[in-house]
Amino acid sequence: MRITNKMMSNSFLADMNINLNHMKRKQEQLDTGKEFKRPSDSPFRAARSMQIYSEIYANEQYNTNINHTINWLDTTDSALDNLGKSLSRIRELMVSAGNGTYDKDELKAVKDEISEKVNEISQILNTSFDGKYIFGGTHGDKKPTTVGEDGELISGTIGDNLKVEISSGVVIEYSVNANEFLNFKNQTLEDKNKKAVKLDANGNTLRVNSDSYLIDESGDKIQYNGGAISVSNDGKLTDKDGKLLKVDKDTGKLLKEDGTEAGITIDNKITTTKTFSDDTLSGLLNDIIKDLGEDGDISKVNNEDLERLDSAISNLLSVRSKVGTFQNRMKGAKNVNEDQNINLKAILSYNEDIDWVEKSMEMGMIQTVYLASLQTASKILPPSLLDFIR
């Protein structure tokens, strides 16, 4: 077959075009730092990158959810801490009101401060974050509590707890609503005859009447040193002169402050059962204020009301412990999420990022071939009419 000048020229131009396309591809890779610019450059890698990008975007949204939840829980924990301080202050006031030396004016001052604490508690329960009431549940646009004209705490519309998705298919409940501490179980200890008993400071189970005096199985006050023995709310025993007493844990013998026996033995190992009754924080606070009033029963303040308040505080601590558990889980989820993001970005980089050294060497080789082909063609291709014109 005869090789013509035209055939050689066409072949040279076709090869040069291929060379230029390769050079253009390498130049794009060096410019963008990516293996491909369009799906047609590498369909498999392009599809793989699209999948990884989707996972990264979803993971970033989960991270946003987690951060928002952590901030929400931090606000919740602070609010519960303030609520606990308010209830503890009410408890201090109730204990002080049990002092027999308080006159009417002092009791009124205690009552007024507790009434003010009701407003403070309502304000705490109406704490908001990001435009929503944190204790309102799914009804976060409505106040969980209000204070009535008579100073009573009123529960509003409260929804279910909120939920959040922290990873693919993992949805958890993270909020607490006001009902969890507005409603609580009042725990009491009772003997076999359904009569209330108390624990002393050493853990002995004691029979105590409604006036907080130590009694025997028949219900009579136990006398010592010419008077009845009283039991404080923290389990301390005192005689009529205010001297401390204690019960021997093994023998049940009453001991004086110096450790000597007082000559009295009591049943300090009573079999008890725990009973629970439904109660509300609103009803408790109303009863406390009522019992501190002129027509109230001041004896209930340091007995029934105080026991109910202790149950409310214990319930609040349980709720706060629950919030702490949520916080720990969110911090763990955040660490997992960040690790997943790092891994996904590493996989994405491996899939689409170029090796700069390798691509620079390839670009140099292509340029060398391109220049060499131009020089070779200039010597091999026969002269054209332009050459003769020159």
TrEMBL record:
GO molecular function ontology, one term from the record: structural molecule activity
Keyword Glycosyltransferase recorded: no
Signal peptide as annotated in the record: none
Family membership: Belongs to the bacterial flagellin family.
Gene3D superfamilies, sorted: f41 fragment of flagellin, N-terminal domain
Residue ranges constituting the Flagellin N-terminal domain according to the UniProt record: 3-138
Species in which this protein is naturally found: Clostridium senegalense
Domain of life according to the entry: Bacteria
Protein name: Flagellar hook-associated protein 3
A GO cellular component annotation in the UniProt record: bacterial-type flagellum hook
Gene behind the chain: flgL
Principal location class: other
Compartment annotation: Bacterial flagellum
Any one of the GO BP annotations: bacterial-type flagellum-dependent cell motility
Residue ranges of domain Flagellin C-terminal in the record: 307-380
Keywords from the UniProt entry: Bacterial flagellum, Cell projection, Cilium, Flagellum
Pfam families, per the entry: Flagellin_C (PF00700), Flagellin_N (PF00669)
